[in-house]
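$ fold --in a.seq
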Amino acid sequence: MKQLALSVITALPVAGLAGCNSNRAATANNTPSATESTAAGETNSPQVFTGEIMDSACAAMGSHDQMMKQEGAKNAKDWTMKCVAAGSKLVLYDAANKTTYELDDQTVAKSFAGQKVKVTGTHDDKTRTLHVQEIGPS
């Protein structure tokens, strides 16, 4: 699967792609606990979360900047989508709190890749996932 993804993005050097998919397991680092949880670990009512929709690998590094500069990427959206094609997942990254939230709706998130957004939804502590109800610009 990794080789298939690499063949799709032939314009990027292998070293650049390694940054895109090497930290997939770290997508939910620093996820805070919700203050009110059900037995299943999900918050009772929807909350608003803010941050940037980015790929899980760049979120684990805290920014796209290093990889974009190294690879000469045009913008955050293009870079995010290249990393997703290489195996990363779309996440919400809150730079102010250095918190990464996995998103259950990758399709809606895709149209906001590289953008600062507000996500309305519930947070499941056990799976460390935001159950997206709505995404909009911040």
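$ fold --in b.seq
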Amino acid sequence: MKERVIEKIIPIIEYRTQIITDVKISRPDKTQTILAKALWDTGTTYSSITNRVAEVLSLTEVRKVKTLNTTGEHEENSYSAILHLEELSWSCEYDMIPSNAFIEGQNHNVLIGMDIISTGNFSLVRISENQLLFKFSF
């Protein structure tokens, strides 16, 4: 079976280097899909979406999950949504947590956490003084 790969060259910007890719998010019944920008975050356990994405897609709560961040332990609503990584011809339904942790003005509205990253092969390789090669594959 041929390996499916996302590859992207990431500029190294002091203190602000980010891996951001285009994704699609759908309702579980696939009646509505939106384009989104996803930040790949190895320090995040659960993938999450902005509250606005949950509102636009009219997602409904499927369960409560306990989360832990710098302000302590919290119980959050979890919403089922389908994440599409078109470059990989891959999509999967995940429980996503709408989060208030997104900072206004950031250029992403989805966090891809270790719940998704750990399902594939994730790598970063420095290819020059100011560039990284990001790869994610199955």
